[in-house]
Design brief:
- This protein is α+β, with helices and mostly antiparallel strands.
- It has one domain (6-128).
- The chain contains four helices and six strands; from the N terminus they run E-H-E-H-E-E-H-H-E-E.
- It has a four-stranded mixed beta sheet with strand order 2-1-4-3, with helices on both faces.
- Helix 2 (29-41) runs antiparallel to helix 3 (76-95).
- The protein starts with 5 loop residues before the first strand and ends with a strand.
- The model is unreliable at 128-137 (pLDDT under 50).
């Protein structure tokens, strides 16, 4: 995966250490979503979903999201996805606090999920597949 086409938005210190070109957010999960939303409104596309693979990951203090850098057009699908993700996150955060007692475990889980996503993206893009509107073509 070319580092010029893709970007990682993260608040995970382990990801920052490994991927020095990542956009590092000194903040919480919601701050990562907010920064990603701002980039999507400027034309970036989501490569990974803004929320975790399970509801348990909504309580993680860390989140890493892969985006495709600014495109010529703004895609409404990605705007709706990130906006809905922020609303979903806020609903869950209102009833339950982040699990900072296990932050080192969450840091590692987020990092491993990111590595897996990057590996999958590389295989998709190097096999001449493209992502359009969230669907693989």
């Amino acid at each position: 995966m070319s580092s010029k086409c893709y970007q990682i938005v993260t608040n995970n210190p382990k990801v920052k250490e490994e991927f020095q070109e990542a956009i590092y957010i000194k903040g919480d999960f919601e701050d990562v979503l907010t920064k990603t939303r701002d980039l999507v409104h400027k034309g970036a596309e989501l490569v990974t979903h803004p929320l975790g693979a399970s509801i348990r990951m909504l309580y993680s203090p860390y989140r890493s999201i892969i985006i495709k850098e600014k495109q010529d057009t703004i895609n409404d699908f990605y705007i709706q996805t990130i906006e809905n993700s922020i609303v979903t996150y806020q609903k869950h955060a209102a009833t339950r606090r982040e699990d900072s007692d296990n932050k080192h475990d969450y840091e590692n889980v987020d990092y491993q999920l990111l590595l897996s996503s990057l590996k999958e993206c590389e295989s998709l893009f190097y096999d001449n597949h493209t992502l359009s509107g969230g669907a693989i073509q």
